[in-house]
Amino acid sequence: MNTKELEQKAALIRVDSLKATTKASFGHTGSIMSVVEILVALYYGKISIRDVMLYDSENPGWEDQDYLVLSKSNAAPALYSILADLGFFHKSDLKYLSQINSNLQSGPFSKVPGVSATVASHGHGLSIALGLALSLKADRKNNKVFTVMGDKELQEGQVWEAAMAAANYNLSNLVVFVDNNKIQASSSVISGMSIGSIQDKFEGFGWNVIQVLDGHNFESILTAVERAFKSNRKPVCIWAHTVAGKGIDFAEGKVGYQKSVLSESELSEVIPKLNDLA
After folding, report:
1. Ordered structural domains, the chain, with CATH
2. 157: closest CA among 122, 206, 188?
3. pLDDT tens-digit readout, 118-166
4. How far apart are the first and last CA of the chain?
5. 172 within 8 A of 136, measured Cβ to Cβ
6. What is the pLDDT of residues 192-227, one digit of tens each?
7. What is the C-alpha to C-alpha distance for residues 201 and 253, in angstroms, rounded to an integer?
8. What's the predicted TM-score (pTM) here?
9. Which of 91, 113, 176, 219 could disulfide-link to 84, CB 3.0 to 4.6 Å?
10. What is the pairing mode between strands 236-241 and 145-150?
11. DSSP per-residue codes, 212-223
């Protein structure tokens, strides 16, 4: 897909995600919207040498597939919307998000076709991705492992244990995106507990860090991925500056929408605008 097509796809994923969360009366609108371009770039993007991620929707678990661990678990509706769009399961299943007996739970659930790992709590995803990457390296496999984290997760000590181990084992097959939207559940991240310089921290643990100043710009994201693929003997952190609630004018950067869903009236206002972009 070219940049315009990726932008159109991002608008469609926003529509499907918002419809699902409003129907479910559960979701984190700000958090979901900030990560859309990152996930769309991973699943639909191409760089000069290959598709960003290798997968087969007709054969989930294909031995040569790449892996995504969505550590930022409250953004699962965006991932589900992408997997449904790609045909891993039927799009009508999105109507049952967060319902009892549905596999589409509030966080990534490994019973869903295309989901690599169940992630229930913040801060666990990098450790899971580390294990996958280490196993693949031991088996001399070329599969890539991606994980997408929220900036609030960087307050968790387990993250830094995993970061230290990843560098120790020279896991150049591991690429971490930090979705730096600067907002957590009920406040800004910095007012809760400042995480300081993301670049300095990851570099201090032995990682290559690539900063993306606009985490909603596909050219910037894909350029960063291409650079990450050329990393030698080091894991890579792609530090992407994003906007919570991106794509919804009245929700962008607003703490109040980080941990809430749109009302039916708000949804009816937003959907036509997004459809115009699709």
Report:
1. 3-277 (3.40.50.970)
2. 122
3. 998 878 999 999 999 999 999 999 999 999 999 989 999 999 999 999 9
4. 14
5. no
6. 677 888 999 999 999 999 999 999 999 999 999 999
7. 25
8. 0.96
9. 91
10. unpaired
11. ES-TT-HHHHHH
